[in-house]
Amino acid sequence: MDVTELQTDSRTQILVVEDDPRMQKILQRVFREQGYHVTVCGDGQSGLDAFRAGRYSAVVLDLVLPNIFGRDVCKTIKSEQEDMPVIVVSAITDVADKVLLLELGADDYVTKPFSPRELMARVQAAMRRRQKTSAITTYSFGDCEIDFSKMTARRGGVSITLTAHEFKLLKYFVEHAERVLSRDVLLNEVWGYNSYPTTRTVDNQILKLRQKLEPESAEPRYLRTVYGAGYKFVP
């Protein structure tokens, strides 16, 4: 297992999963210069092993990795620790791949080549969002019962399946109940982007939540549209 500098202080520890030795050195330098300790793993399996063995503030993850692909590493990390910030750093620019990663729970996506300052800003923003996350673990509205810590959901006593990102979006709505949230705010705070190829990403995700949670998805009672402004959650 290619792992360096395994530390136990989660407040200052960054896990980097990247197989390119040159990029490993760049990422190490970026974070060390800001006072972080860095654990570097060269493949997906060793990355998961290190994640399970240590305590981290964030994970910086490449997509194309030996043994286990980055998107599967992301999915596993989020299934085991939903609030762990995962920032994907990849040369892949395909929009479909970005959408998939976000739906699996990735907090941000930085395309190579990148600005070290931009990468650091995005990682630190993701960590701040984690620190601000409410202590809400369970929540009920209508006939829906949501357990955010266990990532389980029931409607009318029947289990329903939500993706990691649907849980994340719903929790943000719950934490900001009755507040009108614009698409740009949701993209920035939930997806981690200041800009994104299309705000339809938000619309499509909310449509899926309505289909799963609303009595009548065409006439939503809880996830309401505020025309010209955005959306708001009314419990």
TrEMBL record:
Domain OmpR/PhoB-type, first and last residues per copy: 136-235
InterPro entries from the UniProt entry: CheY-like_superfamily (IPR011006), OmpR/PhoB-type_DNA-bd (IPR001867), Sig_transdc_resp-reg_receiver (IPR001789), WalR-like (IPR039420), WH-like_DNA-bd_sf (IPR036388)
All copies of domain Response regulatory, residue ranges: 13-127
Gene Ontology cellular component annotations, sorted alphabetically: cytosol; protein-DNA complex
Protein name: Two component transcriptional regulator, winged helix family
Superkingdom: Bacteria
One MF annotation (Gene Ontology) recorded for this entry: phosphorelay response regulator activity
Record carries keyword DNA-binding: yes
GO biological process, one term: regulation of DNA-templated transcription
Keyword annotations from UniProtKB, A to Z: DNA-binding, Phosphoprotein, Two-component regulatory system
Record PTM 4-aspartylphosphate, positions in chain: 62
Record organism: Terriglobus saanensis (strain ATCC BAA-1853 / DSM 23119 / SP1PR4)
Residues of the DNA-binding region: 136-235
Pfam families in alphabetical order: Response_reg, Trans_reg_C
